[in-house]
Design a protein that fits this description.
- 2 copies of one chain form a homodimer.
- By secondary structure, chain A is α+β, with helices and mostly antiparallel strands.
- Helices cover 27% and strands 24% of the residues of chain A.
- Chains A and B meet through helix 3, helix 4, strand 3, helix 5 and strand 4 of A and helix 3, helix 4, strand 3, helix 5 and strand 4 of B.
- Chains A, B: It is an enzyme of class 2 (transferase).
- Chains A, B: This is Glucosamine 6-phosphate N-acetyltransferase.
- Chains A, B: Pathway: Nucleotide-sugar biosynthesis; UDP-N-acetyl-alpha-D-glucosamine biosynthesis; N-acetyl-alpha-D-glucosamine 1-phosphate from alpha-D-glucosamine 6-phosphate (route I): step 1/2.
- Chains A, B: Belongs to the acetyltransferase family. GNA1 subfamily.
Chain lengths: 196, 196
């Protein structure tokens, strides 16, 4: 079977409903864009901001992720299973930017939604796995993808959105509205094995 | 209907299968216990470490959480819906310590499992909503519940376990094996509204 079993409809299947991205109000973000762009109007007619699709396996999504960290050698079957698991679980808002001229993913970020009992059974968002193709400088892609999923978290009712980052990225995220909260901004990790 | 609709079997329903807690090997943790205890042998015969159950709504689980942060006024129906949503989504390892003499929850911590594409479609753990009843001093409850869910993350195949914490808790978590990674230990937040 392999790739052949995926017909056009299955390939274009989204991991979440794309309509929600069209109604995000970028004027609510403290981020400054120049020129002003948004998920609905990303600034170039060959660029689109949308949820991950099954066919992004064939559009360089994993190759882009591998610029961020190791991905290993993920087969179509593995990708497809994880896509299905994430979609069934709900709460995985994997979001990408595609260059439609060449059918390649050039930016990605994931919002995960964590269900809580606290705060009246609220939900919390997390920003994960942000990466942009650095040959597209000057297109504000990093800002565009992060603000998109941050506004999405708000739209979905999160009481807060959280991220962990390296020192060199603090200023970037501060410009988008994220804060290091005094006395409460420590990200700690325990690592169990070398990632593959 | 209300509470009456929950029969004994439904009330004792676990949010995840409890057997896995019995096989956690506490000698793998760098945490030092004195005396040595574990999830299977928590040190007192009236104490049990187990997954959250539906009936914990009636055993002070939410009252305990409210010692950590605001919970709002959660009805039985809301609790039940969130319990079901978490169980259906998978990945919510809400774990508690009960004092069986008084049928009250005296400690809690949650491991959430986040599915990834990176690292060969791996999974990452997060430690959330840790709270212990501080009238049980000297029972090592904080250490017990955190080590339990940390070993659980490893058992479930996570490549790492992460947490965000206040400055005053850094030493405690370091003693359990968590590290502030140099240059990469910043937890940032964007808050959207006052939590209820």
């Amino acid at each position: 079977m392999g790739i052949e079993k995926y017909n056009q409809d299955e390939n274009s299947e989204y991991i979440y409903e794309p309509q929600i991205l069209q109604k995000l109000d970028f004027s609510k973000s403290p981020a400054k864009f120049n020129p002003q762009i948004s998920a609905a109007q990303p600034g170039e007619d060959w660029m689109v901001v949308r949820p991950l699709q099954r066919d992004d396996y064939n559009k360089g999504f994993l190759q882009l992720l591998s610029q961020l960290t190791s991905t290993g050698n993920i087969s179509r079957k593995q990708f497809d299973e994880r896509f299905t698991q994430m979609k069934n679980a709900g709460g995985y808002y994997v979001t990408v930017i595609e260059d439609k001229r060449i059918s390649q993913i050039i930016g990605a970020a994931t919002l995960t939604i964590e269900q809580k009992f606290i705060h009246n059974c609220s939900v919390r968002g997390r920003l994960e796995d942000v990466v942009v193709n650095d040959t597209y400088r000057g297109k504000q892609l990093g800002k565009l993808i992060v603000v998109t999923v941050s506004l999405l978290a708000q739209e979905l009712g999160c009481y807060k959105m959280s991220l962990d980052c390296k020192d060199k990225l603090i200023k970037f995220y501060e410009s988008l509205g994220y804060k290091l909260e005094p006395g409460n901004s420590n990200a700690m990790n325990m690592r169990f094995e070398e990632p593959s």
